[in-house]
Amino acid sequence: MNVLDHGFVNLVESWGSDERIIEAARQSVGGGFVSWAPYEGHPKGDAGLLRYMWEHEHATPFEFAGAVFEVRAPIFVFREWHRHRVQAFSEASARYAPLPDLNYVPTVERMLQKGGASRQAGSTGATLTQRQAEFACEGIANTYKDIQYEYEGLLENGVPKELARLVLPVGRYSQMRASANLRNWLAFLKLRQAPNAQHEIRVYANAVHDMLAEKFPRTVALFDEGAP
Amino acid sequence: MNVLDHGFVNLVESWGSDERIIEAARQSVGGGFVSWAPYEGHPKGDAGLLRYMWEHEHATPFEFAGAVFEVRAPIFVFREWHRHRVQAFSEASARYAPLPDLNYVPTVERMLQKGGASRQAGSTGATLTQRQAEFACEGIANTYKDIQYEYEGLLENGVPKELARLVLPVGRYSQMRASANLRNWLAFLKLRQAPNAQHEIRVYANAVHDMLAEKFPRTVALFDEGAP
Amino acid sequence: MNVLDHGFVNLVESWGSDERIIEAARQSVGGGFVSWAPYEGHPKGDAGLLRYMWEHEHATPFEFAGAVFEVRAPIFVFREWHRHRVQAFSEASARYAPLPDLNYVPTVERMLQKGGASRQAGSTGATLTQRQAEFACEGIANTYKDIQYEYEGLLENGVPKELARLVLPVGRYSQMRASANLRNWLAFLKLRQAPNAQHEIRVYANAVHDMLAEKFPRTVALFDEGAP
Amino acid sequence: MNVLDHGFVNLVESWGSDERIIEAARQSVGGGFVSWAPYEGHPKGDAGLLRYMWEHEHATPFEFAGAVFEVRAPIFVFREWHRHRVQAFSEASARYAPLPDLNYVPTVERMLQKGGASRQAGSTGATLTQRQAEFACEGIANTYKDIQYEYEGLLENGVPKELARLVLPVGRYSQMRASANLRNWLAFLKLRQAPNAQHEIRVYANAVHDMLAEKFPRTVALFDEGAP
Question: Residue D61 carries which DSSP code?
Fold first, then answer.
């Protein structure tokens, strides 16, 4: 699934299922999954149990499912992503291989976006005109070019890769795999799909959300209903 | 897989593979899995990379695989098991459903076992005779019976389950699911298959080991060679 | 601070403070703690920031404080406590030293308690009379005595400590130290002070709460106001 | 403690002590700290127990001490640091406040350094001359200047801070507080003081090491002896 100008999120694999989550929960009373539909003594079926667990924050059963994603995103997005310490990460390292010349340039529409960003993260007070926004996007793109020119020069002159990378901008794309259980992915979505999250990580969170929804439709539907 | 007199360990599911571990590791240089056999520039194939990572404790890639087990074991075994805080657990609760009358009675051979236990955990100095060992096993079994009699009586008289359970012995079987990534399962095995681990958790660790070896044969083979 | 019939919770040490939490939070904008009272540009002072963080679940700053407790509690209480996997635990082991003959016997009032326990954890339907409750408490105490008699017999006959302990009841007291940061302690309190938590762990959580309130009065006051 | 050209590491506070670690360990047998010097039944004193725990990787007691540091370091150093997921971090955010114009420029000696870096992270094969190294350092410094010029221009034109930051290089200094228990700090040192760690994070790890050694002299002395 493509994200931003050069990024993507791909599902590598998932484990568990909505049914497995019920199975894990039923360990506490010695049972398993029966049926999503109503059955003897459970007028709402196991769908009722799933909802009960979600609404009462019985979070452990949601640790019995999970997913691995492969992600290409700008470094500043990864910097926020890596705050989620219950995930496992394996990322490209510019110590070992030069990072390809892929950099995130915001669109003019994004540059003019209002309200997506929190007040603090917003502009310095001025309101951008269309022309100013175009100019800013070009300025960023040109700076990336100058940086890449310097980066390549340093590498060609024999500067160690681990030092040549110092000039790389946080708008440069990197790549990683990230693995987490479903409980943690949902905590990630809660923070990173929130209105005050930065647009650029929000679009990645949206992609993660949609792929999780295919694998765990009932759990993600409960998540979509809102808190907790 | 049966363990002890009434216990078991069953694999519920696993994710990842030896190949996926290589894929995760190759994120750092932007590649994937190629071949376990030798290939251009890699005289030992990706088997060489797997060994290198293992021997140099590059542990993160081993977090990109994992397994879920269903386990029935005595409470004192679970008490040690639950010290592994990177695992997810969902266990039966005697607050909600009475625990079935299944209790661990050591065999006479186990009772006479030497050296398996560390010195500190060992006997008070005396050496058990065959007759004494038989007597001890019977004593334990009889105590379980008396406890069960009391437990049932309390429940029948209307004592809340959460209080009736106070008398249950730590030799009583409970049941749970446990989920962890492969890095953590191997850390579990390292501690719990060690000679100074108590025999009863060691046999569970052995069962976990054998089921992991079927799913991740190359990684577990490296583990079996020894440290780290 | 004494808890139940033979238990206690003592504060070993704490680190950080309400002020340190503000300092950690201000890292994001490059400042420090100023004043709890109003000041230039902050009409609610740093008290306003603390409240904002709490209400918006900005949890990380609360990881920059913490506390270590020494606790003596029944094993079934520790079994619930140890589900909090972000804490560090160091507990007495009956493999290495026999556990002293201290066991939890509920009071008759506790035995008759209504509503504290969740419905599922409650009685089997019958309603206990005063006499039945007394009888149940005596029955539990007598079972403990029988178990202790067997336990001592096994030890005296030279049965390894790690096997003699099999008969010990989950009502037996054990002892541990537990360390966690403040964010985690508050998550512990949220679950374990809840009305549906079992009475016996609730009284321990209450003791932890009161000692934290002395060290972190402003943060605990926010916690006491309610969610999140 | 100053590190690199504009960085530092300062100890904010620590908790626990070598003695507290012994106390935590003695929970398992029901005792406390006695004496570092020999005493009845302990010919090596509690120094012997500390060594035993260290050498046998009984790691839990080392979780009962810890430290908080305030750190200013280049972003690429923080990127490696943040892989240590058991630490708590609170970092400056360029979404909320522009990052000051402080950037890491390697010295010529560092640029010419051999062997510190692993082979893979090293040069592209060429060997730098003194003149080339000087030229590279100047090139990096000049690129920083151009980037800062662009960054300020974007901010002045009203581009949101969260987008203006895209051009910032990973050589830019940021600031954070980091909190962890001693077990985790020693794991950090083991990886980041290793010969194949990048020089720039190694000097930070050295500073952390020296400050820990003042607070926990006996534990750090064992660490310094080597594995594990």
Answer: G
Residue C27 and residue D70: Cα distance in Å, rounded?
9
B83-93 burial, b at 16+ Cβ within 10 Å, e below that, comes to ebbebbbbbbb
The beta-carbon neighbor of D177 closest among C24, C92, C93 is C24
Residues 6+ apart with CB under 8 A from A44: A38, A51
Binary contact (D15, C181; C-beta < 8 A): no
Beta bridge partners of A39: A42
Neighbours of B170 (CB within 10 A): 24
User: Splitting chain C (228 residues) into consecutive groups of 10 residues, what average pLDDT does each group show?
Assistant: 98 98 94 95 96 95 98 98 96 94 97 65 68 97 98 96 97 98 98 96 98 98 88
Of the residues C8, C15, C52, the best mutation for testing chain D's interface (the one with the most D CB atoms within 10 Å of its CB) is C15
Name the residue among D97, D69, D82, D98 with its Cα closest to residue D7. D69
> Distances from the Cα of D96 to the Cαs of A121, A198, C29, D160, in angstroms?
5, 11, 6, 10
Residue corresponding to tokens 């932007």: B30
CA–CA distance, D181 with D88 (Å, rounded to integer): 10
Distance from CA of A1 to the nearest CA of B (A): 19
Instruction: Let me know if B192 is a catalytic residue.
Output: yes
Q: Which of B76, B128, B139 sits opposite C150 (nearest CB)?
A: B139
Interface contact flag, C128 B168, Cβ < 8 Å:
no
Q: Residues D95-116: pLDDT tens digits?
A: 999 999 999 999 999 999 875 4
Identify the three-state secondary structure at position A73.
strand
Q: Which two tokens stand for residue D130?
A: 């003194």
Q: Are the beta carbons of D15 and C13 closer than 8 angstroms? A: yes
Instruction: Find where tokens 């006499």 sit.
Output: C131
HEC assignment per residue over chain C? CEECCCEEEEEEEEECCHHHHHHHHHHHHCCCCCCCCCECCECCHHHHHHHHHHHCCCCHHHHHCEEEEEEEEEHHHHHHHCCCCCCEEEECCCCCCCCCCCECCCCHHHHHCCCCCCCCCCCCCCCCCHHHHHHHHHHHHHHHHHHHHHHHHHHHCCCCHHHHHHHCECCEEEEEEEEEEHHHHHHHHHHHCCCCCCHHHHHHHHHHHHHHHHHCHHHHHHHHHCCC
Give the model's pLDDT for residue B116. Answer: 47
Q: Which chains border A (3 or more CB–CB pairs < 8 Å)? A: B, D
Q: What is the pLDDT of residues A117-134, one digit of tens each?
A: 455 555 554 589 999 999
Count other Cβ atoms within 10 Å, centred on residue B137. Answer: 18
- Please tell me what DSSP assigns to residue D205: H
The pTM assigned to this predicted structure is 0.95
Locate the chain A residue with the closest alpha carbon to D172.
A166
Q: CB distance from C106 to chain B under 8 Å?
A: yes
D195 — alpha (psi -120 to 50), left (phi > 0) or beta?
A: alpha
Residue D226 falls in which region: left (phi positive, over 0), alpha (psi -120 to 50) or beta: left
